Every structure is written in structure tokens, then in C-alpha cells.
Amino acid sequence: TKLSPEVLRTVQGTGRVLAIFRQEEKTQIIGARILTGLVRSGMKIRLSRGETELGIGTIDGLKVGKETVREQAAGSECGFMVSGLPPAVAQDQLEFFDEQVKERAL
Length: 106
Prior knowledge:
Number of strands: 8
Oligomer: single chain
Order of helices and strands: EEEEEEEE
Structural class: mainly beta
């Protein structure tokens, strides 16, 4: 008998939205300061405003200036394209995490 899979989330970093560069129907480009840890292309991202979680999306790409980068660490600012999130606004909180799905059985 199979159980529903277990989803393991490992938080890798946090950030704060500084500016919104572009918002489209399914994607947006967010400028942010990385406050702790790191952010990497392909990670999941949780968007919160105050104590309210607004949604979870995926980081599709990172840029510093015009240069595409793979990851950025705490203390830096970068822009990233995200999909699957509701519209962000300046000062929203961000949490970057890896997600691993483990199949479970009885």
C-alpha cells in the first residue's frame, strides 16, 4: 500500500522584495536583497506579506545587472524571474528552499 509522498523542504535563504521590474500573467521579475543564506536558480520561493503566506513559486532565472548568474549569497541584490506566484510588492518577504519528494509505503 502506498502512502501519499512526503515533501521535505530545506530553507536555504531569505530575502526582501525591493522592486518589481515586470509582472505578466504567469511570471514576474522581482528585484530583491538576499538577507540570509543563498538563492539559486531552480529553487522554490515562498512569498509572504507580514504574517500571511501568499504563495509558492519557482525561481526560473537570476540576474545581477545584465549578467545571468546561478546563485547569489546574503548581502547581495539581484533580480529573478519567478513563475507561479501572485503579484509581489516592495517589502514582501521571500524564503528560498529546496524541495524533495520521498515516496512512502506501509
